[in-house]
Amino acid sequence: MASVVPVKEKKLMDVKLGELPSWILMRDFTPKGTAGAFQRGYYRYHNKYVNVKRGGVAMVLAAYMLFNYCPCYKELKHQRLCKYH
Amino acid sequence: MNENLFTSFITPTMVGIPIVPLIIMFPSILFPSPSRLVDNRLVSIQQWLVRLTSKQMLSIHSHKGQTWALMLMSLILFIGSTNLLGLLPHSFTPTTQLSMNLGMAIPLWAGTVATGFRYKTKASLAHFLPQGTPFPLIPMLVIIETISLFIQPVALAVRLTANITAGHLLIHLIGGATLTLTSISTITAFITFTVLVLLTILEFAVALIQAYVFTLLVSLYLHDNT
């Protein structure tokens, strides 16, 4: 199932499932490479969600709020509106 | 009711894994680092605020004290952002935990004291005796000054914990009172709601002020010792 373009140069979304292990092993695991990966990931997140003309940080904070709702759900389950608690 | 009030201060866990490190690291992604000459809105506002605060805070220090600039600025940014994020509904505020505040206060205070002892031993020991005390009072006063020195880190930590925790508790209590009062008498509920709004404004102020006070006191201890 070899593809025309070599696996090495593809981005993650273009890699087919069968080629995934070889793609992961190909990645650069040196400290500099890992730091570069984190930096790239952070700037992708920043440019997509924060560095926009409208909203930005507000969207991130709303997502943070929703994320924090999950641990609280267990205690808040008892506070639903119902006739008998 | 009793158990419900303090459940917002327990360690948050999701499917059994404590997510506290994630929550502590979250404010850092809200402060992007400036990379261009003219950045976007968020970064420019943050840069302006940091410059304003650092100028005001570091103006009193000597050259040696100004090497602490990075530490003090990151301290005030961290405490301010963590406190402000704790005002969002359902969120967990790490600064309500005494353990974390002690972990911040003790090393910083110890650093200032150690700097003072190392570089200016006589002057920092002289702090134990204020000028112009009558001779018979000297032993007692030295004891009192030692106690007040050792209480500094504990006071720093407990001040921050108590203020933030008390504010959050008050908001919970008054919010709960407003909700139950709506079915009993609407006017009292409205008054309670006004109190809640005022309290929230106070909490925003307290969040920032506490950060400022913490950092200011650390810088003051530093000034004494450099």
UniProtKB/TrEMBL annotation, chain A:
GO BP, sorted A to Z: proton motive force-driven mitochondrial ATP synthesis
Oligomer status and interactors: Component of the ATP synthase complex composed at least of ATP5F1A/subunit alpha, ATP5F1B/subunit beta, ATP5MC1/subunit c (homooctomer), MT-ATP6/subunit a, MT-ATP8/subunit 8, ATP5ME/subunit e, ATP5MF/subunit f, ATP5MG/subunit g, ATP5MK/subunit k, ATP5MJ/subunit j, ATP5F1C/subunit gamma, ATP5F1D/subunit delta, ATP5F1E/subunit epsilon, ATP5PF/subunit F6, ATP5PB/subunit b, ATP5PD/subunit d, ATP5PO/subunit OSCP.
One Gene Ontology term of the molecular function aspect: proton-transporting ATP synthase activity, rotational mechanism
The organism's taxonomic lineage, starting at the top: Eukaryota, Metazoa, Chordata, Craniata, Vertebrata
Protein's membrane topology: Single-pass membrane protein
Location of this chain's protein in the cell: Mitochondrion inner membrane
Keywords: Acetylation, ATP synthesis, CF(0), Hydrogen ion transport, Ion transport, Membrane, Mitochondrion, Mitochondrion inner membrane, Phosphoprotein, Transmembrane, Transmembrane helix, Transport
Descriptive protein name: ATP synthase F(0) complex subunit f, mitochondrial
Functional note: Subunit f, of the mitochondrial membrane ATP synthase complex (F(1)F(0) ATP synthase or Complex V) that produces ATP from ADP in the presence of a proton gradient across the membrane which is generated by electron transport complexes of the respiratory chain. ATP synthase complex consist of a soluble F(1) head domain - the catalytic core - and a membrane F(1) domain - the membrane proton channel. These two domains are linked by a central stalk rotating inside the F(1) region and a stationary peripheral stalk.
UniProt family annotation: Belongs to the ATPase F chain family.
Keyword Calcium attached: no
One annotated Gene Ontology cellular component of this protein: proton-transporting ATP synthase complex
Superkingdom assignment: Eukaryota
Pfam family, one: WRW
PANTHER family listed in its UniProt record: ATP SYNTHASE F CHAIN, MITOCHONDRIAL-RELATED, ATP SYNTHASE SUBUNIT F, MITOCHONDRIAL
InterPro entries linked: F1F0-ATPsyn_F_prd (IPR019344)
UniProtKB/TrEMBL annotation, chain B:
Entry keywords, A to Z: ATP synthesis, CF(0), Hydrogen ion transport, Ion transport, Membrane, Mitochondrion, Mitochondrion inner membrane, Transmembrane, Transmembrane helix, Transport
GO CC, one annotated term: proton-transporting ATP synthase complex
Membrane topology qualifier: Multi-pass membrane protein
TM helices/strands, residue ranges: 12-31, 67-88, 100-117, 137-158, 170-198, 204-222
Gene3D superfamilies: ATP synthase, F0 complex, subunit A
Catalytic reaction annotation: H(+)(in) = H(+)(out)
InterPro entries: ATP_synth_F0_asu, ATP_synth_F0_asu_AS, ATP_synth_F0_asu_bact/mt, F0_ATP_A_sf
Molecular function GO terms recorded: proton-transporting ATP synthase activity, rotational mechanism
Statement: the UniProt record of this protein carries the keyword Transport: yes
Pfam families: ATP-synt_A
Domain of life of the organism encoding this protein: Eukaryota
CDD domains per the UniProt record, alphabetical: ATP-synt_Fo_a_6
Compartments (UniProt record): Mitochondrion inner membrane
Family of this protein: Belongs to the ATPase A chain family.
Quaternary context: Component of the ATP synthase complex composed at least of ATP5F1A/subunit alpha, ATP5F1B/subunit beta, ATP5MC1/subunit c (homooctomer), MT-ATP6/subunit a, MT-ATP8/subunit 8, ATP5ME/subunit e, ATP5MF/subunit f, ATP5MG/subunit g, ATP5MK/subunit k, ATP5MJ/subunit j, ATP5F1C/subunit gamma, ATP5F1D/subunit delta, ATP5F1E/subunit epsilon, ATP5PF/subunit F6, ATP5PB/subunit b, ATP5PD/subunit d, ATP5PO/subunit OSCP.
Name of the protein this chain belongs to: ATP synthase subunit a
The organism of origin for this protein: Ursus maritimus (Polar bear)
